């Protein structure tokens, strides 16, 4: 199905202004105003591993030699 220019304009308008305003730009990170962030270097403080206690579980956050983070249970 191919839409002509006026049909395309109507389809865009039917989406609504709210959707157009809240849609993230391609390639840009989406951030939520109530979400906090922490740098991994602040968590690890020079170490390569960190144990995280969450409820009854213990998780291990590990920094690899290539600078990647791995979280395991």
UniProtKB/TrEMBL annotation:
Pfam families: hemP (PF10636). It comes from the Bacteria. InterPro entries: Hemin_uptake_protein_HemP. This is Hemin uptake protein HemP. It comes from Hypericibacter adhaerens.
């Amino acid at each position: 199905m191919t839409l002509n220019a006026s049909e395309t304009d109507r389809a865009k308008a039917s989406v609504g202004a709210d959707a157009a305003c809240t849609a993230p730009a391609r390639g840009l990170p989406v951030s939520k105003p109530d979400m906090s962030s922490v740098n991994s270097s602040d968590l690890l403080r020079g170490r390569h591993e960190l144990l995280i206690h969450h409820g009854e579980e213990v998780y291990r956050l590990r920094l690899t030699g290539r600078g990647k983070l791995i979280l395991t249970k």
